[in-house]
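Could you join me in thinking about how sequence relates to backbone shape in a protein? We need material for that, and I hope you will provide a protein of your own picking. Label the sequence line and the structure token line clearly, so we can match residues to local backbone shapes. Would you write everything just below, so we can both look at the same thing?
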Amino acid sequence: MLLLSNVAKSDLFWEPALFSASTPASPDGFFNRGAELALLEDAIVKLQRGAPKWLCLVGPRKVGKTSLLRELERRGRAQARAPGFVVIDVFETMPVSLEVFRVVAIQAVEVLLSRDAGRSLAAEAGTPSEWRAALVKSNRFRGLPSDLQTTLGELPTTPLEGAALSAVLNVPERLAEALGAHLVVAIDEFQELATLSGARGAPEVMSLLRSVWQRHRRTAYFVSGSARSTLLELATSQSSPFFQHFEVMEVPAFDEAHAVELLVEGSRDASQRIGPALAARIFEVVGGSPFYLQVMGEAVVLESGGADVRLRSALQRVLFSETGRLSLYFLNEFQRLVGRATTLAATLNALAQGPRTLTEVANAIHGTPGATLGYLARLRDAVARNAAGQWQLTDATFALWLQWRQPGGSVLPMKLVGDEAELAVAQLLAHLGFELVYQSRGSRGAFDLLATRGAWVLAVQVKRSPLPLRFTRAAWERMEADGERYDWQWLIAQVSAQGQVQLLDPAKAVKRGGVVLSEKAVLERPLDWLERRRPARKRGKA
């Protein structure tokens, strides 16, 4: 097995560009992966010599496997006889069915014949008559053997069973051979195809693929997926039809050095650049997933202020928010993992707090060790055992998101990026039933924190000085103006050197030149104080 993580500085590939987390990396935004590309390019050389290599790319979702293949394709275009690339994601053809092999065959036709036909052939596949009419416009198609012409003409309607299914699987190789070309067929989330073999009346798909593919000399097969254990079992288990057919290549997350360079270089053209120290803090919080780094980079360059302000505002926007980009991604992952199984949800939540023994997890979810072991097995690659024998989540950023969703999780942003005084205030307000968030506008304005409780919106300025607290007229009027402007109720939180918090009523301030808040302003029953205030007409925006 090849483990490719840290590569030399000379292996980095980057031109200044802003972040883009929505699509595979563009040519000027492709970063790192020099060692991985070298191995893939070696596989292309072997393909062109008639000895195709099968590769199994293993890595988490969104780690950049598709970007890697697209970059390989782009670099190959400079060659006179570069192979064509067919890149398919099984998840794009859900629910999983044999139709994915028809898609592969149609895309092979698209890659090798559409330019000659002067139009997209795949776009016509939904209408058989239009498909056949488009094919005959290609001179290369008309030069194919008659039986291959018939196979391609019937491709959109060919029943995927028996000999007809084998014929569809052979389309990429037969077409490449007839045209003197080469193809790379890359199938992402390949492990999902294994479920087809268990369907009633379905063929043993993996055995069929092996028997067909091993005869191909002009087509190389690269498979990848995010279900690490399942994919490795397919590629390396002695009981698998593919045993010793695939070379396994790990595609890991970035290490700190490459993550920092990605963020720094990716923000070079932004008005608010990301410096090395801030980039290191981002890596510390979200890890080295290229997708997470890109999403955070997009958010951080839009923020201004100090490094901590920018980081916590970005985290609040993309991770600790119901509509944040990473939050929605993790919600989808959570639902995919647990479905309707509350026991699986409880198991994930138990592990979100950190590594635990089997017994500790069982106690946390009120289950037996035997049943809990079954739940952990069902979560597959989302969990793993560490060197100490404890169970833990494999994605630390997912664990943060799970913590945030749990009771009291509203203080998590302060634990990650905040000082002790703000954390103490956040914990008190959370105990009082507030949902607490960092708010971008307030972080650059008069207030440090913004809290919500139902329809109530409360802005808070945190002071670390002992009572009495003293303010200039200008600072006080700025708080009054911001409270009026955004229709926020507001107060002052005083934090002692020992971390004790007192909430102070601004209405009890004494104004004589400056503004002073003494012990008389301490709120003994802050919720009652809030209830006596008028309801907020609108909620402030984070």
User: Anything to note?
Assistant: The chain is about 45% helix and 15% strand. The first helix runs from residue 34 to 48. The two ends are 47 Å apart (CA to CA).
